[in-house]
Specification:
Elements (H helix, E strand, L loop, with lengths): L2 H15 L4 H20 L10 H13 L6 H20 L26 H8 L7 H16 L3 H5 L11 E5 L5 E5 L2 H13 L1 H6 L18 H14 L10 H12 L4 H8 L4 H4 L1 H17 L5
Antiparallel strand pairs: 1-2
Length: 300
């Protein structure tokens, strides 16, 4: 099968049958578009003509094209190519998988960076409560920290998703839904936004069920949500880097430090495997070690 048609068939598969998120599908498309183009430049237009040596050469060329290629980027690229050829083999389109012996690069374990509880309090208090957009921003920040939701999940929330008392319905990766408790602070901030701000914003744009709206009434984008976080960090004079995932990391870390079970945190974060969540236990152990070293009279 022609490689471009093979990619189209694969994308249909992960869209319809596997139900992956639009962001994941877009990432696969980008990776595989570059893969098809590279293979064409090297005289291969059919999936049956791809060999293990060519795949290894492609990965090596992509790595060499960057001064300091990130292991995570190469790992994702390899995963995209491997997933494509496994699909073609499984469907009987090709008889052999040229990626069968391809080994992903070893990823360095990076501990997520969490804010302190004081820094989170300053961040959440940063938006101006006298400004309607400030009330919206406060609701967004409170929700992110109260639930551990990803920014992409937060901007996809509908008004109906928060209409369940002290719980929130979140649609995660692969359209999987989970129910997450929401605390009193976040509930009050959301109620204030829904009552005092959202109706006026909604009147400026087309009807939409989305919870968070921009100044013109359109659904808030991920990029705009990131700007909300960055502005709040600047106003709170937080000097450490603050990314869209920072509040999610802080949510998990603070729960574990407070004694929550790692499997409960796994459910709240929507992780498919507890192994993904266990990285946060390292953060908590480090915090315990710091307290021990500074508090115990014979620690040093």
């Amino acid at each position: 099968m022609r490689l471009d048609r093979a990619v189209d068939a694969f994308v249909r598969h992960i869209t319809v049958e596997r139900g992956l998120s639009q962001n994941t599908i877009a990432a696969y498309r980008r990776d595989l578009a570059g893969y098809v183009e590279w293979m064409r430049e090297h005289g291969v237009d059919d999936s049956s003509g791809v060999t293990p040596a060519l795949v290894a050469e492609f990965i090596g060329a992509r790595g060499a094209a960057q001064p300091r290629p990130a292991a995570s980027s190469l790992a994702r690229l390899q995963s995209s190519v491997r997933s494509l050829h496994r699909f073609l083999t499984r469907e009987g389109i090709d008889t052999a998988d040229p990626t069968g012996r391809l080994h992903p690069p070893k990823l360095p374990q990076r501990l997520p960076k969490a804010l302190t509880i004081d820094q989170v309090a300053r961040l959440l208090a940063a938006p101006d409560p006298e400004d309607p957009i400030g009330l919206r921003d406060r609701a967004l920040l409170e929700l992110l920290y109260a639930t551990g939701a990803r920014v992409s999940e937060a901007v996809q929330l509908d008004v109906d998703d928060v209409g369940h008392g002290d719980v929130l319905r979140v649609r995660g990766k692969g359209s999987k839904e989970r129910i997450v408790p929401i605390g009193e602070y976040a509930r009050d901030a959301i109620d204030a936004y829904l009552t005092r701000v959202r109706p006026a914003l909604a009147a400026r744009g087309r009807a939409t069920p989305r919870l968070f709206l921009g100044a013109r009434g359109a659904p808030l984008s991920r990029q705009s949500a990131w700007l909300v976080i960055r502005r709040a960090a600047e106003r709170a004079q937080i000097t450490v880097p603050v990314s869209p995932h920072t509040l999610r990391h802080s949510f998990a870390t603070h729960l574990l430090q407070g004694g929550a079970d790692v499997r409960v945190v796994q459910e709240l974060l929507g992780h498919a495997s507890v192994a993904t969540t266990q990285i946060y236990t390292h953060v908590s152990v480090d915090a315990l070690r710091d307290v021990y070293l500074t508090s115990h009279p014979r620690a040093r």
